[in-house]
Amino acid sequence: MKPSATIFLLALTSLGLASCATDSRDPAAKKSCCATVEAPAAFTDKSIYQTESAWTTDQGKQLKLSELRGRPQVVAMFFASCQFACPILVNDMKRLESSLPAELRSRIGFTLVSFDTERDTPSALAEYRKAHALTKDRWTLLRGSPDDVLELAALLGVKYKADANGQFAHSNIITILNANGEIVYQQIGLNQDIQKARQTLQQLLHP
Q1: CA distances for 71 relative to 14, 119, 154, 176, 193, angstroms
Q2: Predicted TM-score (pTM) of this structure
Q3: Which pairing describes strands 54-57 and 62-64: parallel, antiparallel, or unpaired?
Q4: CATH classification number, 55-205, choose in 3.40.30.10, 3.40.1190.20, 1.10.340.30, 3.40.50.1240
Q5: Domain residue spans in the chain?
Q6: How would DSSP label each residue in 32-79?
Q7: pLDDT of 171-181, one tens digit each?
Q8: CB 197: neighbour CB atoms within 10 A?
Q9: What are the residue ranges in the chain where pLDDT is below 70?
């Protein structure tokens, strides 16, 4: 060890900073601050949470998809100015939410990700949340860069294409992810029967 490093460690020791071991003379101390903290398990190769894409919420907060880990997520891609398919798609998600027992709803997240990287600013998404009465404790609204949107759409099997008027032709798919971001069920189409989706969520919470 270099002399300078040795002097630095000795200085820390004299200040009581070099060691974080619990003082055995303190009867209130129960464990060392150096106790091992178990790291979260790594995502599997089937998890969409592996992506490093960066997103912004309607509240302007930066978020990575991995931060959604921990509870099942019901995910759909949309755009706020959509006048036909998207309102129905969101309503299908709200029907699914309402169909669940109250004690289960708080254990599930609902995430909407916009295709419209230009117009769907955080403030536009905030207005959409308000207009559709999407609660902040369960619903997450996200916008991202064109590349990140394209990547997520590919992972979810969603196809979309902008037209000359700034509208989007797109797949209407509701995806259910487990707590680790793995796709366990997809509902394709609008105004579909939500029984299978509801059963899937219940099974995730009560395996």
Answers
A1: 46, 30, 22, 11, 23
A2: 0.80
A3: antiparallel
A4: 3.40.30.10
A5: 55-205
A6: -TTPPPPPPPPPPTTBGGG---EEEETTS-EEEGGGGTTS-EEEEEE-
A7: 999 999 999 99
A8: 23
A9: 1-40, 207
